[in-house]
What we know:
Helix content is about 50%, strand content about 5%. It is an alpha+beta fold and about 1750 residues long.
Amino acid sequence: MADGGDGGAAAGAAGEGGRVPAPAQRLERAVWWDxxxxxxxxxxxxxxxxxxxxxxxxxxxxxxxxxxxxxATIFYPLECYLFGEDPDIFLEKLQQSGTSQLCGKVFKGGExxxxxxxCAVDPTCVLCMDCFQNSxxxxxRYKMHSSTGGGFCDCGDTEAWKAGPLCTKHEPxxxxxxxxxSECQLNKEVMEHSRRVFPSVIKYIVDMLIWEEEKELPxxxxxxxxxxxYYCVLFNDEHHSYDHVIYxxxxxLGCELGEAQLHTTAIDKEGRRAVKAGHYAxxxxxxxxxxxxxxxxxxxxxxxxxxxxDVMAHQKFALRLGSWLNKLMSYSSDFRQIFCQxxxxxxxxxxxxxxxxxxxxxxxxxxxxxxxxxxxxxxxSFFMEMEYKKLFAVEFVKHYKSLQKEYIxxxxxxVLSVTALSVQMFTVPxxxxxxxxxxxxxxIITETLLEVLPEYLDKNDKFNFQGYSQDKLNxxxxxxxxxxxxxxxxxxxxxxxxxERFLEGFVSFLRILTCMQGMEEIxxxxxxxxxxDPDWEAAIAIQMQLKNILLMFQEWCACDEELLLKAYxxxxxxxxxxxxxxxxxxxxxxxxxxxxxxxxxxxxxADPVSIHLPLSxxxxxxxxxxxxxxxxxxxxxxxxxxxxxxxxxxxxxxxxLVLVAQVAAEMWRRNGLSLISQVFYYQDVKCRxxxxxxxxxxxxxxxxxxxxxxxxxxxxxxxxLADAFKKMKPTKDQDLIKQYNVLIEEMLQILIYVxxxxxxxxxxxxxxxxxxxxxxxxxxxxxxxxxxxITKSLPENENNETGLExxxxxxxxxxxxxxxxxxxxxxxxxxxxxFNMFFYHYTKTQHSKAEHTQKKRRKQENRDExxxxxxxxxFSPAFSNVVRLLNCDVMMHIMRTILQxxxxxxxxxxxxxxxxxxxxxxxxxxxxxxxxxxxxxxxxVTFDFYHKATRMGxxxxxxxxxxxxxxxxxxxxxxxxxxxxVSWILQMFxxxxxxxxxxxxxxxxxxxxxxxxxxxxxxxxxxxxxxxxKAEAARLHRQKIMAQMSALQRNFIExxxxxxxxxxxxxxxxxxxxxxxNVSLAIDYSKIALGPKRGPSVTEKxxxxxxxxxxxxxxxxxxxxxxxxxxxxxxxxxxxxRSRILELSGxxxxxxxxxxxxxxxxxxxSCGHVMHAACWQKYFEAMQLNFRQRLHVEQIFDLENGxxxxxxxxxxxxxxxxxxxxxAQKINSEDAEAVAxxxxxxxxxxxxxxxxxxxxxxxxxxxxQNTPTSMNKGLGNxxxxxxxxxxxxxxxxxxxxxxIKEMLILFATTIYRVGLKVAPNEADYRIPMMTWxxxxxTIQCIENLLETEGKPLFGSLQNRQHSGLKALVQFAAAQxxxxxxxxxxxxxxxxxxxLLPSFKVEDTPSLLEVDMFHVLVGVVLSFPxxxxxxxxxxxxxxxxxxxxxxxxxxxxxxxxxxxxVLSSATESPTAQSHDxxxxxxxxxxxxxxxxxxxxxxxSQDVPGWLVWDCVKKGIMxxxxxxxxxxxxxxGVSPPEExxxxxxxxxxxxxxxxxxxxxxxxxxxxxxWDTVNPLLQRWCADPVVLSxxxxxxxxxxxxxxxxxxxxxxxxxSCLLNQASQFRCPRSSDDEQKHPVLCLFCGxxxxxxxxxCQELVNGxxxxxxxxxxxxxGAGVCMFLKIRECKVVLIEGKTRGCLxxxxxxxxxxxxxxxxxxxxxxxxxxxxxxxxHLLWQQHCIIEEIARxxxxxxxxxxxxxxxx
Length: 1759
Ligand SMILES: [Zn+2]
Ligand SMILES: [Zn+2]
Ligand SMILES: [Zn+2]
Ligand SMILES: [Zn+2]
Ligand SMILES: [Zn+2]
Ligand SMILES: [Zn+2]
Ligand SMILES: [Zn+2]
């Protein structure tokens, strides 16, 4: 921390540290203060004396020392004086008397805030984490968000919450808050002193902060002689980047990078910093230098000042004093009130503003640190006292204009501006009301806008944002936001004054709209394409900002009839004023069907048009509200009919719609993308309410007030289609014809909307809910949708609500998501009838998708495909005339003309879409007439659609009416798809006709219902017949399609023959293999893998297909190698000890023995895809070449490290496993029996030891080596000689083809390189060790996975796991042959050191320090090396192997049982059992021995049954691993029990498969002579003894199965944790990114320089460096604030993954954008767990990087 004056230090200031002046001094001070009369003078004298001394060392301050001195010399005496007693005692008392009811916690950036959708008055009302957790809203529909900083907690503000304004912590009477009133009780004396102290303190603060002199101080503070001590001070701005500043400083001051960085960080944090101290001249010089250099890099110079040291000191102290006050404010309401009073006090008679105004006005000139202190002070004083908040707001509004202007020119973020406080005041309903009434705040805000926007006005006084500055405009938006805040809560009670002020504000607002009406006009570009796309974003952005404001204005107006009418009048006036354009032109006349339209010509395609018409649209909005409230009947009192001029009102919105049509017809394509974007937003959900929707309404207003024929003529003319409906001139120009057709379609659509779209309150009698339901229904008619997708497609109101939740359950049902994807809503069946194909908010694609979906659905239900419009609600009276459009002459003409063209097959003049629309209009007409007839007596229904439609259009001979045309349409082959609709319409004609006829006989009311029903009945028969016909037709059609399809398929197979057949083949083969295996399992071979009863290997010819060349090949030893793609990685998936520090480089590591903690292993996985080694090599080389040529393409994978993507499945791989065939072995049981007689374990051991010592004798001649000190003393039987081992059977070893050998070496080297993180070296002695190690570790991983997934040991592996493991084990067995046998022998001897009695090798770890399974794999695989002779290469025969395996396995098992007994059977029993089983007895006697050998360290108290229990449980994973290993090594089928999951059966089956007695202790008894010395040796090891004595701990068996950490069910718990997170390395209050490691639960400080770590000379972020240890480079984190999972690998790769938290709609919420409550989804978390345990994280990262290239730029290293 560079500044003692900031909030952080202040927090602790009044309480604890550093304030211990000597008692004498203390007393003297206090007295001194008291005696003086003039506080002001003494106070300043004291400051003048001390402050410059205390803050003298600006460049290199001792912060603690400073604070101590300030406390002692200034604060302590000051407080003594103020409180009249010891400050600590006094404040303690105050504290206990209670705190405020308001929480008032000020948010820092990134802090989580909560709002309640049920109770918050508006979304700006928020709670802090603490208050939220203690509030009722916790169980409501809350929202979580990240604060941008600067807001504060509204807990306790009764105006902010409809319910539950107080949390339990702030509730009066709650613990700690005592009686509410008592807290205000400061005694008189203290109040008196406060009144005397505060003014001086405040004045000093204000004076110093606004002090502008660089060299001088105010006279009162100038005491000592001025010294030539200056600082060159650099200020923060948002213009220069970090790097700019660092660069400039380095250049200008010649300082080190580190120092420059230090300065820059401090400047960014505090706002300013002294970068140089010295004499005035030198500082001045530095200043110029800095300015010069900074100007060089970025045009603008940095802000630098030279300040006298004393000025600097006093300014610094002023801020410290500010924090002191801030703290004081929290103690008592009296302090706050006195403080506020003084701040607001104006000098009588003086023009000078009060203190607080001064500060406000100076705000934009202050540096960052000062602003922070001041704003916090305002929060803690004014904003905690409602009365003073109001007074502050009044002052704020008084200066509003100048404050906003300052802010707009300021270069600091908005959170740092005093203007950002507006939201705290304007959103308080009573305060807003007061400000509107008394301070005209609406007018002031709009005037401010008018004053800041002129720079964007063109010569016509319209806005034009070409070449605007984004930053500046963003600042203007802040003003618009304020308008929104003021309007956010509608008043319920209107006073005359409020009405007046509001109207005044509204009129002022209309002036802004006037500048927007018609702004940024565009003209169609003809010939050349425009060169530069004009800026359009700014204008559209303003429209978006204004949308809800416009709506709110309309709503406010509608509260009060009088107001509404007056507002309407004003708005109408404004529209008229803007509608002058074109008046100069001569009117022209247009005739059609005997109707005439006189109008001024205007062509959208030639004259300038604008898409921005906020005035017209506001008027339309007010008009529907007039209609809704009924006030429309009084409209003539305000706007006379002559003035009204409806045709002018319609004109501009109509032009806009025509523009949209012409854009669709591609007439404007030369105007570029900018227009397309504007048209998009015009209709998009973000804008349409106040753009497109209102234009439609305006047309409806026009249609309701104009003569329908005239209205249609106007439409035809504006669409420039007048000629198209007269006599079509024949043209060959295809483009032109197409253009006409699109225009006609567009126009028909608009007509459909004008007549049919009535879901607007006021246009018809619908509610807002009805409207939302209809929107949702139409969205779900397209397809089922996620909650968020629906929300995104609905307009938001001023509270960011869509109203979705209130209605969704009425129209849709929720379907839960699976493990991936999200939940969706499906439309309820009963809502399907509401579907309107021509819904006006459908885009073109949505329209056709919805139509397709609905038709398909009807077809599936075996119904006709007609989709007629649903009957629309009745227009409200003001709009009832709109329906006359349907039956007017011009409409009939239009429809007839189009149908006629279709019938006459003038193919180029009509389209199917056109016909669809005409049919839709016909349906609307018929529905209307039917509805009217059903409501009123026939003679009263003047709507005569039926009549008009059945009448001839002209007297020409061949003239036909619409009804007749329809009959013909039915037969047009191109309109097959419309037949059902046509039939439906014909039926409707019939129905209406009947209604007309019947009603002329009887009164409609009585009969119509049943008649209609009857009519429907007769049509039902017809329908049935029709359906039958159609079903038949459909069947034939399907047949045809099927025929076509299969032809196509044949074709496909023909062309892709190779591929197809091959894949079929391999699939078939694989299946066959599986089957064979299954079959062979069924045959009753011996299912024993080890020893003389060993069963045969089940092998079969393996023919595999190379995925690259598609050729197949049998896998044989002597053939060219085939390989499996594979990925080797280090893994900590099984670790039992995360605190163990991993070696980052394996240069000196000896990996022969694995520690039982399994801290880090090497895992080999495969995607199971097979290639020829040669094909793979070619592929890899080609890829390398390819990438070398395209240097700049960022690589997903690291070719240098051998990485590539599997050519088939794109998994990330870094090597290949050669496929080595299993060598079938079978033993002759007679021979085996014979051998059994002589080869007992002791004998075998003897032979073994002789062999080994023989070797060592031989080798001793050569080099010095780790000779086992063989002790042959007991072995008198020296008949044995060096070669004895060979006598039980040898055979010649397998001969591998050179290509297989090559691959063996290649793969082994990769394992070595990746597993140890070392440079590749084919000859390294550790290569075989690593081979065995990865083999053992991978098996352990798979065993672990099967167990956690609850799957049986055999038969349930995925194909890829199965083939990968098979190849890996066979490889591991074969690898030995590529290394020198002497080397293998050496390793073997060291391994045997653990197992053999009387056989000591140096460096043998103690029994508790080795993983026995790793030992087992190692000894089994290396054992054949003993058969090697100098000259002859031999290997053991099947029988020999069987015994070797058996004894080696028994020995490791003995060792493991001992491990378990020593480490795990130490607990005293919790339950009693009287199990006297054989096992228990054996266990007991073993324990006795162990106890003896450990000198009593091993307690004998543990009962035998418990020991047995421990052993049985603990040994299970080892047995399972061993079974897997031997199965894949030998190919012996396992017993059936292992193909199922069963606890008890499994143990027996394992024992039988592995030739073990089920009472494992029998092994000890049987081999006692051998075991005895072993046991002695094991037990005597110091490590073992220390463990038993409890001095160290050993791993317990079974090992714990790792899982990802427990996550809380409720996400806000995590956020809570995150908010309490403190970075371990830094104490500043900057925003942190807490990240949770899902492996170990560590919380890290990510993406922050404070926690970067230097690893091997590279800076790594906290996550990356943690991952190196925690996951051996691969790790999984949860970014808590963003609710995203991050997977990372190494230093360069990573990806995001959805967090396992879902909201109630089954959706994730990355970035907490939606903010709904989130809950843990166990299934998804489990999926993440499996991703880890299956070692698929790297694969996932590679896949995601391939599909999602965005993250290439991301620097994962610093995460
Ligand atoms: Zn709070
Ligand atoms: Zn609270
Ligand atoms: Zn609530
Ligand atoms: Zn191949
Ligand atoms: Zn693959
Ligand atoms: Zn971790
Ligand atoms: Zn940190």
